[in-house]
Amino acid sequence: MFNLILFGPPGSGKGTQSENLIAKYHFKHLSTGDLLRSEISRKTPLGKEAKKFMDKGQLVPDEVVIGMISFALDEHPHAKGFLFDGFPRTSQQAEALDKLLELKDTAIEVMLALTVTEEELVTRLVKRGETSGRTDDNNEHVIRTRILEYHKKTSPVAEYYARDGKVVNIKGEGTIEEIFQALCDEIESRMRKSEKS
Ligand code: AP5
Ligand code: MG
Which of 28, 56, 104, 134 is catalytic? Predict the structure, then answer.
C-alpha cells in the first residue's frame, strides 16, 4: 500500500492535482473538504454542524473529521493506497491518522507540500468564488481566515511528518502540468524506494 498526503494552504491546488494523480495512479482519494460538503448537501446532522465552522473559514472539530476518515478507511479495505487531501489539518489529526493506518499495518509514505504565495492564493480563491458556489470562497474575509487557520493550526502538521523525513516541498506555482510532473517524479522515486525496502 502506498499512502500520501497532498498538503498545502487553501487554494494551493490540492484538489486540482488530486484529480490528475488519481487518474494516473488509482489511489483512493480522501478529501475531508469534499466529504464535509457532501454531508452539507445531504443536510445530515454532521453536515449542519460542520457548516457553522466552514462558513466562517474555521476548522471543523477534530473528532468530527477523524470519525469521518476512520469510517472512509474501513469502507475501502482493498484500496491500493490512499491520497489524503485537506487532511490531516491539526497535529491531533496527524496522530490519529498514524494510529488508524498502523491498525491496517500501513503508514504514510510521503507528504507532498505545495508552496504558493499568499497573494496568489487569495487571487485564485476570489476568482473561483465567482463560479464555485462555495460559501467560503465568495468573501475575502473568510478566505483570509482560512489562510490564518492554516498558519496557526495546520502548518505544524508538516513539522510532525518532517521529523521522519517524509516531507517534500513542491512549488505550487506555474502551469498545472508542470506541477503535476514534479509531483509524479517524487511519487515514483518514493515508490521505487518503498519497493526495495
Ligand atoms: P477544503 O475543501 O479542504 O478547502 P481548502 O483547504 O480551503 O482548499 P481548497 O479546496 O479551497 O483549495 P485546494 O488546495 O484544493 O486548491 P484547488 O485545486 O481547489 O476545506 C474547506 C473547509 O472544510 C475548511 O475551511 C474547514 O472548515 C473544513 N475542513 C476540511 N477538512 C478539514 C479537516 N481535516 N479538519 C477540519 N476542518 C476541515 O485550486 C484552487 C483554485 O486555483 C481553483 O480555481 C483552481 O482551478 C486554481 N488553480 C489550481 N492550480 C492552479 C495553478 N497551477 N495555476 C493557477 N490556478 C490554479
Ligand atoms: Mg480542495
Answer: 134
Candidate list 37, 51, 124, 146, residue with the active-site label = 146
pLDDT for res 194: 84
Whole-Å CA distances, 103 to 77, 81, 98, 106: 12, 15, 9, 8
Distance from the first to the final alpha carbon of the chain: 13
Q: pLDDT digit string (tens) for 68-103?
A: 999 999 999 999 999 999 999 999 999 999 999 999
Give yes or no for a contact between 13 and 21, defined as CB atoms under 8 angstroms apart: no
**By C-alpha distance, which of 1, 164, 180 is closest to 81?**
1
pLDDT of residue 5: 98
Query: Best mutation site among 6, 7, 14, 118 for ligand 1, i.e. most ligand atoms within 8 A of its Cβ?
Result: 14
Tell me the pTM. 0.97
